[in-house]
Design a protein that fits this description.
Helix content is about 80%, strand content about 0%. It has about 400 residues and is an all-alpha fold. The longest helix has about 30 residues, at about 220-250.
Length: about 400
C-alpha cells in the first residue's frame, strides 16, 4: 500500500498546490478594496478593516478549532473550509448596503474558510514528502503566495467586464467547486510510507511527537513564535504598503508601482521555494539565520536609500525573506515537535502570520511621516525587530524530534 501511495503522491501534491493557489486570494485584497469603496460609498478605513478581520479569522481558526480539525482530518477540514471560502465570496456578490455584510461574508466566512484550508494543505504537502520537507513546504507556500499574482488581475478583469457583484458570484462558485474536488485527492499517507520514502531523521521519527497541548507547554514554542513573528514583520510592511512606499518615497508613479507590486509578489513566491530548498541542504536552523541576516540588512539599507532602483531591489529581497520564513515554519515545527501532529501544531503556529499582519501595517502607517523620508523610521524599527529575531535563534535548538532535544 505504501509503494502504491508513493507512486501517486505527485498527483496529491498537484491537487494540494492548486488548493493553496486558490486559498491565496486573500493576498489580492488591495485590488478589491477600492471597488467596494466606489460601489457602496463606504469609508476607506471601515472597508480596510475587512482585511484585518479576514487575517484574524484565518489565523485564529486553527488555534481555536484545533481539536475539531484533528477529529475531522485533513480531507474533511479542507472540504468544509473550501465550502465556507467559496460561499463567503459568493454571498459577497449579493450584499446590499450594510458593511456588516462585508465583514460577515468576506471577512468572517472567507477568513475561517482559509484557516481551515491553508494550514491543513501545508502540513499535508510536508507529510507527502517527509524526505524533502523544505522543498515541499516551499512549493506549498509559493503556490499560496502566487494567489495575488493570479487572482488580482482575474477578479479585476471580471469587475470591469461585468460588475463587482457578478465577479464575486462567479469566483465564489469556482472556488467552492475546485477546492471541494481537490480535497478528495488529499489521501493520508500510510504510516509505513514514511519509512519507505526515506530521507533523514524527520522521516524516521514516525509515531513520535508532541501534540498541540504538549507543544504549547514548552518554552521553545513561545521562543519560536516570537522569532517567526519578528521575522515576518518587515515583509508584511513591504507587501502591504508597497505601492504607497514606492510612490511617496521614491516618486514612482501609480501605474509603475502597481506593476512592481506584482514583481514583489513574485519575489515573495520565489523566496518560499528557494529558501525552503536551501534548508533541506544547509539545515533549518542555519537557513533561518541566513534569512534573518539578509532581511535585517535589506531593511537597514531601505532606510538609508531612496533611489528608485535600489529601493525596488531591497524591497524584493525583503519580500523573498518573508516568503522564506513562511516556507521554513512548517518543516521547523515538524522537526522540533515531530511529524505525527504537524497538522494541528502548524495550525497553532500559523497565528504568527496574524501577529505580524497586525504589527507591520500599524507600524508602517503610524510612523510613515517620521524621519528624513517617508517610512524611514518604520524601516529602522523593522530592521531592529528582525535583528532581535536573529539573536533569539541562538537560544533555540532546531533539531529532529527523535534526537531528544
Amino acid at each position: 500500500m505504501a509503494e502504491s501511495f508513493k507512486r501517486k503522491r505527485i498527483i496529491y501534491l498537484i491537487a494540494s498546490l492548486i488548493i493553496c493557489l486558490f486559498a491565496g486570494i486573500g493576498y489580492a485584497w488591495s485590488v478589491f478594496q477600492n471597488p467596494f469603496i466606489r460601489h457602496y460609498g463606504w469609508n476607506d478605513s471601515a472597508v480596510a478593516l475587512t482585511y484585518t478581520i479576514t487575517v484574524l479569522c484565518s489565523t485564529l481558526t486553527s488555534l481555536l478549532l484545533g481539536s475539531v480539525i484533528r477529529k475531522l482530518g485533513i480531507q474533511k477540514s479542507v472540504l468544509i473550509g473550501g465550502i465556507m471560502l467559496g460561499l463567503g465570496l459568493f454571498l459577497t456578490g449579493f450584499m446590499k448596503h450594510s458593511i456588516w455584510e462585508l465583514y460577515l461574508f468576506y471577512g468572517f466566512l472567507t477568513g475561517v474558510g482559509t484557516g481551515l484550508v491553508y494550514p491543513q494543505a501545508m502540513s499535508y504537502v510536508v507529510k507527502l514528502f517527509p524526505e524533502k520537507p523544505g522543498v515541499a513546504s516551499g512549493l506549498g507556500t509559493a503556490a499560496y503566495g502566487a494567489g495575488s499574482m493570479l487572482w488580482a488581475p482575474v477578479v479585476s478583469a471580471l469587475i470591469h467586464g461585468l460588475s463587482l457583484q457578478m465577479a464575486f458570484r462567479i469566483i465564489g462558485v469556482i472556488f467552492l467547486l475546485v477546492i471541494a474536488v481537490g480535497s478528495f485527492f488529499m489521501k493520508n499517507p500510510p504510516d509505513e510510507s514514511r519509512i519507505l520514502m526515506g530521507g533523514g531523521d524527520t522521516a524516521t521519527s514516525v509515531g513520535n511527537g508532541m501534540n498541540r497541548a504538549q507543544m504549547v507547554k514548552t518554552g521553545r514554542f513561545y521562543l519560536l513564535a516570537a522569532i517567526f513573528s519578528l521575522a515576518l514583520i518587515a515583509g508584511v510592511i513591504v507587501i502591504s504598503q508597497a505601492s504607497s512606499i514606492l510612490q511617496s518615497r521614491t516618486g514612482i508613479g501609480e501605474t509603475a508601482a502597481a506593476v512592481l507590486v506584482s514583481v514583489f509578489a513574485a519575489a515573495n513566491m520565489a523566496g518560499r521555494f528557494i529558501w525552503g530548498s536551501i534548508s533541506d541542504k544547509a539545515g533549518r536552523s542555519a537557513t533561518l539565520k541566513y534569512v534573518l541576516i539578509v532581511c535585517t540588512v535589506s531593511m537597514a539599507l531601505m532606510a538609508l536609500f531612496t533611489h528608485p532602483v535600489l529601493s525596488c531591489i531591497f524591497m524584493a529581497i525583503t519580500a523573498s525573506c518573508y516568503g522564506g520564513t513562511a516556507a521554513l515554519i512548517t518543516p521547523i515545527v515538524s522537526d522540533v515537535y515531530g511529524p505525527k501532529y504537524i497538522t494541528e501544531n502548524y495550525g497553532v503556529m500559523y497565528m504568527v502570520f496574524g501577529i505580524a499582519s497586525l504589527i507591520g501595517p500599524l507600524l508602517a502607517t503610524s510612523l510613515k511621516d517620521l524621519g528624513s523620508a517617508p517610512y524611514t523610521v518604520a524601516f529602522i524599527i523593522a530592521a531592529i525587530l528582525t535583528a532581535i529575531g536573529l539573536i533569539l535563534t541562538f537560544f533555540v535548538k532546531i533539531r529532529p524530534y527523535n534526537s531528544k532535544l
